[in-house]
Write a sequence for this structure.
């Protein structure tokens, strides 16, 4: 997912690894996904070798040299492929990268996205049905409790995955609006100049990032106004 995340970021604007790293830290993605800020530079190197990104220029910041990368046409195609692959993955643990997938749905054609999600829901329902059939065969009065719970857990997991994807379908337009506003924020702000403590110290109450996300989902008409206010706050030194 880290490669997909980098391509998503570069699809919005050319930038350097440090800004992407800071964005991950500011949003605390490391705390609840498998995306780690420390893996950014390694992934950038891999993506460049694969021809998915290209070095646009280098900037000297003090004694440091920052490499500004841009996405290539092959990278844009790979981004959509990565996105579809993530959509097709099962959700098994609390660190699943799929939990942060919904804010990126705006980068894909809506009709194609809906069809893809519906197909995956059908796959999940079939897996649930197959598991229930196997449960009916395997579980009886002599079955160990631990084995019964294994089946219960698997079926419950399928139920929640189906619910998650059904909710994604219902809220697809709100998610697209969220992605659009997030892209605007990324485009306007150089996150490498934003201190993590400043973000949480200055942006508080109804102005914080999480509240902005909720505002966009609950009231998209007000999202642009709140986004502009947040941008001004983040620009303070």
């Amino acid at each position: 997912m880290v490669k997909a995340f980098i391509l998503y970021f570069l699809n919005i604007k050319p930038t350097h690894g440090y800004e992407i790293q800071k964005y991950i830290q500011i949003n605390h993605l490391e705390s609840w996904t498998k995306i780690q800020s420390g893996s950014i530079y390694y992934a950038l190197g891999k993506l460049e070798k694969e021809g998915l990104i290209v070095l646009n220029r280098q900037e000297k910041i003090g004694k440091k040299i920052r490499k500004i990368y841009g996405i290539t046409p092959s990278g844009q195609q790979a981004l959509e492929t990565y996105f579809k692959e993530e959509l097709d993955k099962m959700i098994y643990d609390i660190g699943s990268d799929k939990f942060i997938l919904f804010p990126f749905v705006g980068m894909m054609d809506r009709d194609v996205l809906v069809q893809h999600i519906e197909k995956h829901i059908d796959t999940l329902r079939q897996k649930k049905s197959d598991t229930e059939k196997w449960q009916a065969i395997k579980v009886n009065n002599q079955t160990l409790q631990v084995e019964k719970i294994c089946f219960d857990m698997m079926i419950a997991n399928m139920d929640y995955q189906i619910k998650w994807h059904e909710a994604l379908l219902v809220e697809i337009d709100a998610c697209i609006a969220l992605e659009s506003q997030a892209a605007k924020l990324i485009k306007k702000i150089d996150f490498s100049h934003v201190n993590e403590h400043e973000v949480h110290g200055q942006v508080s109450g109804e102005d914080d990032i999480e509240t902005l996300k909720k505002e966009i989902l609950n009231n998209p008409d007000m999202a642009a106004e709140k986004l502009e206010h947040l941008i001004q706050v983040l620009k303070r030194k």
Q: What stands out?
A: Residues 110-138 form the longest helix (29 residues). Residues 196-207 have pLDDT under 50 and may be disordered. The beta strands are 53-61, 64-71.
